[in-house]
Design brief:
transferase; two-stranded antiparallel ribbon; histidine kinase; five-stranded mixed β-sheet; alpha+beta; binds adenosine-5'-diphosphate; about 270 residues; 9 strands; phosphoprotein; EC 2.7.13.3
């Protein structure tokens, strides 16, 4: 919390009456600082792969010009760096979209089970290549939420991709859907979707900052695995837009559980 607030006074004399209006600029200053930090972060994130690309281009032009083996290896790395930049730009655009959208977007009635079945089906190949068994446990009856299908699909895709990326060593990733007439987090009817892995987990010191843009619990591993550091920021935004809540529980060595709690349609 901010202990000191900046207040700028604007005074004017209008026909003998003194008009003073105070504008609280604390939020504006903070917003300005956040924007500057964000631009600095984005520039840094883009510059890293760009520098690598430029280095490889130079090497290919010079010392590696006639070395076919080196050329193939370098091109492979260059492709990986280019696709990292592509992912970053894609995530930035997604984040921008969800941030700038108003809540008035038309909402559809969505069956969570169907949505999760299709999302997990599209991630099956990834799960298979990571050697992970992906399971879905949902109530037999439909669980209807009011929401944006594309955005909610993105939420569960991001959480599942993380579980498969960081939690693959656990061998199993579970999606568990449950409902409550009165969810304590919402004080109303809610549906919970938990994505749980049994991998390396996250040191609890990181948990409060995990949804910040570009925050990574394990910087080296995230970059190695092609992470952009924006996935959970996008998740958090979309969940907020749906008047939902996001919970994270984890301990080192104990895997991680991310829970999305969404309001459920009342009949
Ligand atoms: P990234 O693109 O780096 O994966 P995210 O915003 O999706 O960015 O996640 C932020 C960080 O949270 C990751 O860098 C990783 O350190 C940590 N993290 C997210 N999900 C998991 C998980 N299931 N297990 C362990 N660490 C995780």
């Amino acid at each position: 919390d901010v202990s000191c607030r900046y207040v700028r006074g604007i005074g004017a004399v209008l026909g003998g009456a003194v008009l003073i209006s105070f504008v609280d600029v604390t939020d504006m200053e903070q917003a300005g600082q956040m924007r500057r930090d964000f631009v600095a972060n984005v520039s840094h994130e883009l510059r890293t792969p760009l520098t690598a690309l430029m280095g490889f281009i130079e090497t290919l032009r010079g010392p590696a010009r006639n070395d076919e083996k080196a050329r193939d290896r370098f091109l492979e790395i260059m492709e990986a760096e280019a696709s990292r930049m592509n992912r970053l730009v894609g995530d930035l655009l997604s984040l921008n979209r969800v941030e700038s959208e108003e809540r008035v977007r038309p909402r559809e009635q969505l069956d969570l089970r169907a949505l999760l079945e299709s999302t997990s089906a599209s991630l099956r190949p990834l799960a298979q290549s990571a050697g992970v068994e992906l399971t879905l446990d949902a109530p037999a009856e439909q669980v209807i939420v009011n929401g944006d299908a594309d955005q909610l699909r993105q939420v569960f895709t991001n959480l599942l991709e993380n579980a498969l990326k960081y939690g693959a060593s656990g061998g199993r990733v579970e999606i568990i859907v449950s409902t409550a007439e009165r969810d304590p987090a919402l004080r109303g009817p809610g549906a919970r979707v938990q994505v749980r892995d049994h991998g390396a987990g996250i040191d609890p010191v990181h948990l409060p900052r995990l949804t910040e843009r570009f925050y990574r619990a394990d910087n080296h591993r995230s970059r190695e695995l092609g992470g952009t550091g924006l996935g959970l920021a996008i998740v958090k935004h979309i969940v907020n837009r749906h008047r939902g809540r996001l919970r994270v529980e984890s301990e080192l060595g104990q895997g991680a559980a991310f829970t999305v709690i969404l309001p459920v349609e009342q009949n």
